[in-house]
UniProtKB/TrEMBL annotation:
The gene is cd276. It comes from the Eukaryota. Residues 263-282 are annotated as: Disordered. One of its GO terms (molecular function) is signaling receptor binding. It comes from Gymnodraco acuticeps (Antarctic dragonfish). This is CD276 antigen isoform X2. The chain crosses the membrane at residues 224-246. Its main location: membrane. GO terms for cellular component: external side of plasma membrane. The keyword Membrane applies. The keyword Transmembrane helix applies. One of its GO terms (biological process) is regulation of cytokine production. Signal peptide: none annotated. Residues 1-101, 122-213 form the Ig-like domain.
Length: 282
């Protein structure tokens, strides 16, 4: 049986770039290319990806989505290189590929192709930026676009505590199969709190973090406390007005009493003057 070799580890390729699916074989003796047959096909569905025999490419049975996207290295076929170049890789290309080679003897081997795409920088937003109160539940939303495969999400508070158990994450694929990832964290609001959302692409590694800090400026008084404050202010104002009225009345009464006392003293003085004049005239 012919020995055919492919990579044991998955082949990881970025979305939109070209992939080289390495395949080599070791014939027992020299051979003519006219005696060589190579078939690349999808392992699961058996659909043809690329064919070669009779000294040239044979693409009649090639799956339509691979048209004009595959090629071999003709000058290296005689050296035992049956690798396939797959251009402009998309998410739909991900999967297992089998390389079949026949030169007198026959052999095959399968490899795994994985597609990766980096996510955009995550952005964290608040459910609402007004009327926030300590103790309220608040939803923080972390969004990132255009990535593949599904990313791991890590939420942490300012102290580095893992909050990932409190999240809900959803994925929506676009027409290219790339994901928009939305992760929602529900927290109990505290003043001056910091939260971070981190994405980790399992194929590309860490991608980035976004932070949000909730300060006292975002928070409003609770409605009950606000009405109590307004009520106290109104009561204080009424009390001040009443106190001013009482003081004004007391001052007015004091002035009138002082005026009466002055008039009585004047009348008494005049009476005493008249009495003294009468005694002198006598």
């Amino acid at each position: 049986m012919l020995e055919v070799n492919v990579p044991e580890q998955p082949v990881v390729v970025l979305h939109g770039s070209d992939a080289v699916l390495n395949c080599s074989f070791s014939p027992a003796s020299a051979f003519n290319l006219s005696d060589l047959s190579i078939f690349w096909q999808l392992t699961d569905t058996k659909r043809s990806v690329h064919g070669y025999w009779g000294g040239r490419d044979q693409l009649v049975d090639q799956a339509e989505r691979f048209a004009n996207r595959t090629s071999l290295w003709p000058v290296q076929l005689g050296l035992g290189n049956a690798s396939l170049l797959l251009s402009s890789v998309v998410v739909a290309d991900e999967g297992s590929y089998t390389c079949f080679v026949r030169v007198q003897d026959y052999g095959s081997a399968a490899l795994l192709l994985l597609v990766a795409a980096p996510y955009s920088k995550p952005v964290v937003t608040l459910e609402s930026e007004t009327n926030l109160r300590p103790g309220d539940e608040l939803a923080l939303t972390c969004v990132a676009y255009g990535g593949y495969p599904e990313a791991g999400v890590i939420w942490q508070d300012g102290g580095g505590r893992n909050l990932t158990d409190n999240i809900t994450t959803s994925l929506v694929a676009n027409e290219e199969g790339l994901f928009m990832m939305t992760s929602v964290l529900t927290v109990v609001l505290e003043p001056n709190s910091t939260y971070s959302c981190g994405l980790i692409n399992p194929l590309l590694g860490e991608e980035g973090y976004a932070f949000v800090t909730i300060t006292g400026q975002n928070m409003a008084f609770p409605p009950v406390a606000l009405w109590v404050t307004i009520g106290l202010a109104v009561c204080l104002l009424v009390l001040l007005i009443a106190l001013a009225a009482v003081c004004s009345r007391k001052i007015k009464e004091s002035c009138e009493e002082a005026r009466r006392e002055a008039e009585e003293a004047k009348e008494l003085e005049e009476e005493e003057s008249k009495t003294a004049m009468t005694l002198l005239n006598s």
